[in-house]
Design goal:
globular; 6-stranded mixed β-sheet; cell division; transmembrane; Cyclin-Dependent Kinase Subunit Type 2; 6 strands
């Protein structure tokens, strides 16, 4: 599959919440995992380049081992909104 076709297979979970945050899992197709950098946390331009579509301001802040299969992102929302938002990206 080409990249455009792979992007159609990115899975976005329903949102879920705790007292402070809103969360969502994003699952990439297995074929896309080779495109994810292993040496550094991704910039917004990098994860958008993979085809992940979220609102502006998300920050990749953690890689979960083993295998680097869990990628976690967050964005701080305006305090008046009452919550911050996290994305967990599985490969």
């Amino acid at each position: 599959m080409n990249r455009e076709e792979l992007q159609k297979h990115i899975y976005y979970s329903d949102k879920y919440y705790d007292d402070e945050y809103e969360y969502r899992h994003v699952v990439l197709p297995k074929e896309m995992t080779k495109l994810v950098p292993k040496t550094h946390l991704m910039s917004e331009a990098e994860w958008r380049g993979l085809g992940v579509q979220q609102s502006k301001g998300w920050v990749h802040y953690m890689i979960h081992e083993p295998g680097g299969s869990l990628w976690i992102f967050f964005v701080v929302v305006v305090p008046l909104a009452g919550y911050s938002l996290y994305i967990i990206l599985y490969q």
